[in-house]
Amino acid sequence: MLFLVLARGLQGIGGGMLVGTAFACIPDLFPDSVVRLRWQVLMSSAFGIANAVGPSLGGFLTQYYGWRSVFYVNLPVGILSLFFVWRFLQHLRHVEHKGKMRLDWPGAALIAVALGSLQLFVELLPKHGLTLGACALLVLSVVSAYALWQWEKRCPTAILPVDMFRNQSLAALFTLAVLGGFTMFSLLFYAPLLFQGGFGMSPKEAGVVITPLVVFITMAVSPTAAWCRACAIRI
Known about the structure:
By secondary structure, the chain is mostly helical. Helices cover about 80% and strands about 0% of the residues.
């Protein structure tokens, strides 16, 4: 279990860096808004296809080859991706940013503390009730969120620019993204556990049963995400 937690944490960090970097590179590599939107739709489609295939493939690998194979299957995909980056990325447009880019490390740390404390509070509350430790985690989360808000208003290279939330058009897009992501990931995380723990299905059977749900979520979310990005480009 310790190895599973560490591997999943490493995978989450790497996946978050890949997704954030990929979407951030599109405006630099493709300045034309039409071409840029085309590539964003392409990436959203790839994300949707992966979501549709992932549950069935993950259940099959877990049942017949063990849960470790779910991590090892990323190795050939990663090697193939590195080849395409080495072969084709150098022929695309590159943007040289003026000045030295500084990362907002305090903002990133405050986000981690605020969200991490809130998640621990939510996990401990049903098990142990409203204990002193749970209250301390909630207070830490609130204080970190307030400190993050104050810091981001003064930081020149904020990781979470608060000015975006004052734009009414962008605020509507953010609200839609949060609600859609909350619904989607809640279903994706809870449904396989319900099928295996509540109905006694095998990992492969749970993956096959949840596949139609993921496919229709993808059909609904991908066009919405593309529309949101198109609106953000125009804004």
